[in-house]
C-alpha cells in the first residue's frame, strides 16, 4: 500500500481547503460538527501514511473550506441586499485619502458597521466630500449609496458625505507620516514620491505621467505595496554574513515587523511575511525547505481568514504566482544552468524573471496589457530595488532627524532613484512597446498547466537521480532542457 509523508498530507489538506473555499460559491454545505470530530479522531488514530488517511485529509479540508466559505457567502449576500440603497456606515480608513474624480477624497476602509446595527465584512472603496483630509487609521462616518464590487474591494460608496468621528493616534502611522515628510525634505520630486512608493507603496503623490510610464515598461509593481520586495530583502539578509545565524534571523524578523507596521498590515506584505517566516524557520533549524508546502499553507491560512481573496482578489493570485516563480522556478533554473549556486545578484535576476513570467499570463488575461520590454526593464531595475529602498530609508531618516545635512546623506538615494527613473523614461519613449494584447482563459490555464507539468517532471527526475546508477542517470536526463541549458551556457 502506498505511503505518504506528513508534509504531503499537510500540502494536500491545504489544497483541499482552497478547493472547498472555491466550491462554496456554488455549493451550500454545512458539515455536521459530529462528523468533523469523528473524522479528526480517525485521522489521529490511523497511521498517517495510509491511503485512508489521505481520503480523510481531503474530506476534512473540503469540509473546512466549504464551512468557512459558507459563512462569508452569507456576509456577501448581506452586502448584495444593500445594493443601490443609501446607507450610513462607520469604517476605519486603511489608506491616506487622495483627490480623485470630481475633487472627491478617495480612500479604502474596513471594519465597517451600519450605524447602530451589524458589522459588514470586506473592504470598501469610499469617495466623497465633507472633510479636508482622511488619514489611515481614522474612523469615518460615510453616508451614500452602496454598490457591491468584485476584486480586492467588496463594495464602493461614491459621492458620499464624509465625517470623521475619530482621529488616528497610532504611533506607527504618525511615524510613517513623519517618514514621508522627511523623504520630501531630503529628495527632490519626483524622486521623493518614487522613494515613498518603493518603501510603503504610496502612489498618490506620483505624477500621472510617471505612473503611465511605469505601466508601459512593466514596472508599476515596484511602487505598490509589494510582498515581493520584502521577500527579496529577507532572502538577501539571510544570505549575507551579518554575524551569527541567530543574529541574521533576528535582523530578518525585525525587518518583517517594521514592514508590516509601516504598511498598515497590507495584505500582500502579510502574505510575504508568512512565507518568509516559514522559510526562515526551516532555514534556521536546518530543515529542508519545501516551497510547495509553504505556499499551500500560506494560501490556505490567508484564504481562511478572508475568503474574499480566493473569490476575486487579483493581487492574491499574483502574489502566489510570483512566490511560485521565486521559490520553485528560479532555483530549478539555477541548478540547470550553473554548476554552483549563483551569486546573490544573479539569483535575484533569475527570481525576478521567474516571477514576471509567472504573473504575465494572468495580467494579459485580465488587463489585456503586454509590455514588450517588461522582462528587460525588470532585469535592469528590480535587482537594484533593495539598495534603493535602503538608501531611501537613510534619506528619509536624515530628513527627519538632521534636515541641514539631509542633502548630503541623501545623495546615494538620489543617484540610484534618478538612474531607475531614467531607465523608465528611456524605455517608455520607444514606440510600440506597449500592446493591448490579451490571451484567453483557456490559454492561460494551458500555460500554467504546462509549467506545473514541467516542474513536476524535473522534480521526479531529481529524486530518481539521487538513487539511480550512472547508467540510469544517462537515461533520465531530459534532452529538451539539456539542449537549452547548453545553448545558454555557450552564450555566457
What does this protein structure show overall?
This protein is α+β, with helices and mostly antiparallel strands and 492 residues long. It folds into 4 domains: 6-76, no CATH class; 86-168, OB fold (Dihydrolipoamide Acetyltransferase, E2P) (Beta Barrel); 175-435, no CATH class; 441-491. Helix content is 62%, strand content 11%. It contains 20 helices and 9 strands. The protein has helices spanning 6-23, 33-45, 51-81, 171-186, 191-200, 208-216, 227-239, 245-262, 267-284, 291-305, 308-312, 314-337, 344-367, 374-381, 385-401, 406-409, 411-428, 441-465, 470-476, 479-491; strands at residues 86-93, 98-99, 105-114, 119-120, 124-129, 139-148, 155-166, 370-371, 434-435. Strands 1-3-5-7-6 form a 5-stranded mixed barrel. It has a two-stranded antiparallel ribbon with strand order 8-9. Strand 6 (139-148) and strand 7 form a beta hairpin. The longest helix has 31 residues, at 51-81. It starts with 5 loop residues before the first helix and ends with a helix.
Calculate Rg over CA atoms: 24 Å
Give the terminus-to-terminus CA distance: 48 Å
Helix content: 55-70%
Q: Name the quaternary structure.
A: single chain
Strand order of the largest sheet: 1-3-5-7-6
Q: Could you list the spans in which at least 5 consecutive residues all have pLDDT below 50?
A: 468-492
Secondary structure class reads alpha+beta
Estimated share of beta-strand residues: 5-15%
Number of domains: 4
Q: Which outline best applies?
A: globular
Please report the number of helical segments.
20
Q: Averaging pLDDT over every residue, what do you get?
A: 81
Largest sheet: 5 strands, mixed, barrel
How many E strands?
Answer: 9
SSE string: HHHEEEEEEEHHHHHHHHHHEHHHHEHHH
